[in-house]
Amino acid sequence: MQEVALPDVDSILISAPGKVILFGEHAVVYGKSAVAASLGLRTYAWMRPTGDQTVTLRLPDICSSAIQWDLTALSDFVTSHNVVSSCEPTSLTDNKEAAAQPLLKSIAMVPGARQASLAFLHLYTSLFKEPQGIEVCVRSALPVGAGLGSSASYSVCIAAGLLALNGYVKMPKMSNTAYDATELKLVNDWAFVSEKVIHGNPSGVDNAVSTYGGAMLYTNGKMEPLNGFKSIQFILTDTCVPKNTKAQVENVRIRRVQFGPILDPLMDSMQGISNTCKDLFGALEQSDITLSDVLTGMEELVDMNHCILAACGVSHPSLERIRQLTARYGLRSKLTGAGGGGCALTLLRDDTGVDLIEKVKSELRAESFRCFETSVGCHGVRWASLPLDSKDWMDHWKHFVENRNVDWNILSNI
Ligand SMILES: Nc1ncnc2c1ncn2[C@@H]1O[C@H](COP(=O)(O)OP(=O)(O)O)[C@@H](O)[C@H]1O
Ligand SMILES: C[C@@](O)(CCOP(=O)(O)O)CC(=O)O
Ligand SMILES: [Mg+2]
Q1: ipTM of the assembly?
Q2: What region holds the GHMP kinase N-terminal domain (predicted)?
């Protein structure tokens, strides 16, 4: 096999944020607008060329043993499927997916691992000119499959790392994290390709937020910054009921086929909600209204958006329970992300006291829900090569992989 030199790097660390959708999930799949922002909770990936004959993928969040392929099997796969390596984003075809089945046998029974490794394999075989031995480990501070965009942040991490390993995007050192617009677009486009493998028919909002960070109104690939978002505070609560975005998106598709004249106006209504939200933020920026006015408007939008999503068939008794429980304290909640389980967001008012917030959270926890403390509007994807003498970094990384929620300042810089 012809040897192709990889960039002279020891290893690369990549990170990408999760997201919260305030309004417009599912409708955004049909070209309507969604209001979304990045979260302080991130996914991290570490990659290194090994020079040996194996590709090793470690996904400790979802799979306890490492997934491994030898280069001969990967070369046969690449050759038999005429895969031409290029940085031009290309979707996984049905033929290539079928041909990949033997490579996925060992993890077929692990929920989520099949899609995650298929997405990785597709990007790896598309971007590497010749299969090369590499080792990859992905670990997330986000709950996986809970509506906070873990699949998008996973996709952004593997896209950025594999592009960087192949020299398609520059590899900054830790201290310099400036990426140009072309590089970010390439990462976002490949992350979308990966999201398609995981979700089937994603809108692109999650990978866009994870790539670019901040808060935005997202419509069919168009991103408009929404500065007002950062002044909104909420509680994020995981019902801990597992959900699968692909299945929820498919359920809405089927319902839309069955009840088009009913579902289409619901999608239009969600567009109206996102438009109204944008107008409220706009008026706030012009100082035409106060934050309190914005929140009064938002409370109604949260309620209406949730009920429309419920009519689309993507609520769950546990999400309704969170709405009920928080309503007792005058707070409004809605599902966020794909629904059917996963997370709810509860809007807080500017005058909601700390004591009340703590009381609500402790009631939620008493019902075995999990509440997250995090910030919104954080930076998007970052990648950088680690110093060659990276023993310290490796120690930190291993610690993070083992302890997941460890508060590690060095990691938070990337
Ligand atoms: N940290 C991770 N490691 C491996 N795979 C991941 C990770 N995070 C997400 N995924 C992939 O994404 C899937 C969850 O995606 P999805 O159903 O869209 O939920 P979410 O709301 O978290 O994006 C997982 O089953 C897995 O295939
Ligand atoms: C339901 C949807 O609007 C968001 C899904 O987000 P998540 O995978 O549940 O985090 C789908 C999409 O926009 O691709
Ligand atoms: Mg997802």
Answers
A1: 0.99
A2: 128-214
